[in-house]
């Protein structure tokens, strides 16, 4: 027994971490499809053989290798990797070599369970003797998803910039889809158009990413926006605007959330989902915030080396955050004159809202830091309703729900919780329909920006 547990602990430290990607096949799980395609394109541009794995088809396998107590995204991603490897083994037969792959599963610090997915999946993979040598490539929010160790030092810095840019461009493409689909001239046209656009942009990242030719990438994006505008039928009147917040995986994974955006659209909404870049910015902001707290403490204690270290960290994360804002603004500035698109919330503003209202704190952490003030921002901007999308039993989203519900009642803005665990709830569509009826009423009374 002891030997086995030693074995397990060794595997958790030796086979989960930042590994060199050179000459490996890098397996990227699908969260939001466009983001995955663009990120894989960016990796390929840097010479990494990155593959975006299919998703959700392996859910039965995921459920077979979990106990049911894990978070739903853990079950989905466990199924994705197991099914992919099963198919690879069938395809390659005796040439299958687990050493050739690195499976990408990042993590976040507590207090919730995202930090445990890759450890749990390591244990599952180790239960198949032939998969013990397959490494799990992990990045952590602890250092704001630095890529140290995966590339050469120089390439690491460059890829981080391009990778972040791909995240913002993917956000904007998603927003383009949600902006045009409720008003499309021809049913199905928006989906087809966006699928083609995602591949075009993935190619652009593969071709221009490593030379950091962001202008060429933006030119392609602008072309797509000009085309996308033509999908809209200008005769269709404006619809109520619904904002989405929640757990990052569920709110962006179309199959896992049973395509909740399409369901809302079916009942008359135009939807804006919180972005992925928001989470990346949050992790950078939070590291800087921690360094500031540590600086204050070190000053009180007069610990010179710690003061120096804190200052260095504040400077480094500050530079990263400014860079991220600069690139994000650059993308939105390029596309907004072509089509009005919702912009992202700034993290320091979210922090300030929580400070002022005293309803939650960045000290506690998790996605509730973004969801709670994100909802309040939607309300301030005149959205007609908000939906919180999350895995059943998700801790941060349950906290969000308990804090925000009474506030939304007070503000008389429609609000809906939609937890998912892979099962189909018979009342789900009725709940969405009722919510949309309320959003329509709100829209009639207040319009979309507070003025009817
Ligand atoms: S955010 Fe929710 S679903 Fe994700 S790991 Fe934490 S508790 Fe689980």
Furnish the topology, listing elements before pairings.
Layout: H1 2-14, E1 16-17, E2 25-28, H2 33-45, E3 49-52, H3 59-64, H4 72-92, E4 101-104, H5 117-126, E5 135-137, H6 153-180, H7 189-208, H8 214-229, E6 241-246, H9 248-252, H10 260-266, E7 270-273, H11 277-301, H12 304-335, H13 347-357, H14 368-380, E8 385-391, H15 395-411, E9 415-420, H16 428-446
Parallel strand pairs: 1-5, 2-3, 2-4, 4-5, 6-7, 6-8, 8-9
Helix pairs in contact: 2-6, 2-7, 6-7, 6-8, 6-12, 7-8, 11-12, 13-14, 14-15
The chain binds iron/sulfur cluster.
Structure description:
The structure is a single chain. The protein is an alpha/beta fold. 57% of the residues lie in helices and 9% in strands. The chain has helices at residues 2-14, 33-45, 59-64, 72-92, 117-126, 153-180, 189-208, 214-229, 248-252, 260-266, 277-301, 304-335, 347-357, 368-380, 395-411, 428-446; strands at 16-17, 25-28, 49-52, 101-104, 135-137, 241-246, 270-273, 385-391, 415-420. It has a 5-stranded parallel beta sheet with strand order 1-5-4-2-3. Strands 7-6-8-9 form a 4-stranded parallel beta sheet, sandwiched between helices. α2 (33-45) runs antiparallel to α6 and α6 (153-180) runs antiparallel to α7. The longest helix has 32 residues, at 304-335. Residues 71, 73, 112-114, 247, 367, 391, 394-396 line the site of iron/sulfur cluster.
């Amino acid at each position: 027994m002891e030997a086995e547990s030693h074995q397990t602990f060794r595997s958790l430290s030796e086979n989960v971490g930042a590994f060199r990607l050179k000459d490996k096949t890098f397996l990227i799980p699908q969260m939001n499809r466009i983001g995955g395609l663009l990120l894989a394109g960016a990796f390929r541009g840097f010479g990494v053989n990155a593959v975006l794995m299919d998703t959700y088809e392996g859910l039965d396998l995921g459920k077979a290798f979990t106990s049911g107590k894990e978070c739903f995204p853990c079950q989905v991603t466990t199924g994705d990797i197991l099914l992919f490897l099963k198919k690879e083994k069938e395809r390659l037969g005796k040439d299958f070599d687990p050493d050739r792959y690195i499976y990408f599963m990042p993590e976040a610090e507590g207090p919730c369970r995202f930090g445990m997915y890759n450890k749990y999946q390591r244990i599952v993979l180790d239960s198949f003797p032939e998969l013990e040598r397959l490494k799990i490539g992990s990045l952590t929010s602890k250092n704001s998803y630095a890529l140290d160790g995966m590339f050469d030092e120089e390439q690491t810095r460059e890829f981080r910039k391009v990778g972040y840019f791909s995240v913002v461009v993917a956000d904007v493409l998603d927003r383009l889809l949600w902006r045009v689909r409720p008003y499309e001239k021809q049913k199905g046209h928006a989906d087809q158009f966006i699928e083609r656009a995602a591949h075009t942009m993935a190619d652009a990242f593969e071709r221009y990413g490593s030379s950091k030719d962001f202008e060429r990438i933006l030119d392609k994006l602008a072309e797509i926006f000009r085309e996308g505008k033509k999908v809209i039928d200008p005769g269709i009147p404006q619809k109520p605007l619904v904002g989405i917040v929640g757990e990052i995986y569920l709110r962006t994974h179309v199959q896992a959330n049973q395509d909740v955006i399409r369901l809302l659209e079916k009942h008359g909404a135009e939807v804006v989902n919180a972005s992925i870049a928001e989470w990346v910015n949050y992790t950078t902001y939070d590291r800087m915030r921690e360094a500031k707290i540590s600086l204050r403490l070190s000053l009180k204690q007069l610990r010179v080396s710690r003061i120096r270290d804190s200052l260095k960290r504040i400077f480094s994360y500050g530079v990263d955050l400014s860079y991220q804002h600069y690139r994000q603004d650059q993308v939105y500035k390029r596309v907004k004159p072509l089509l009005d698109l919702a912009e992202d919330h700034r993290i320091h503003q979210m922090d300030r809202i929580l400070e002022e209202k005293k309803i939650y704190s960045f000290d506690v952490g998790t996605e509730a830091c973004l969801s709670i003030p994100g909802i309040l921002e939607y309300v301030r901007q005149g959205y007609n309703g908000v939906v919180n999308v999350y895995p059943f039993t998700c801790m941060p989203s349950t906290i969000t729900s308990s804090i925000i519900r009474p506030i939304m009642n007070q503000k008389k803005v429609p609000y809906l919780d939609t937890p998912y665990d892979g099962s189909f709830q018979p009342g789900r569509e009725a709940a969405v329909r009722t919510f949309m009826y309320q959003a329509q009423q709100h829209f009639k009374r207040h319009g979309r920006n507070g003025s009817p």
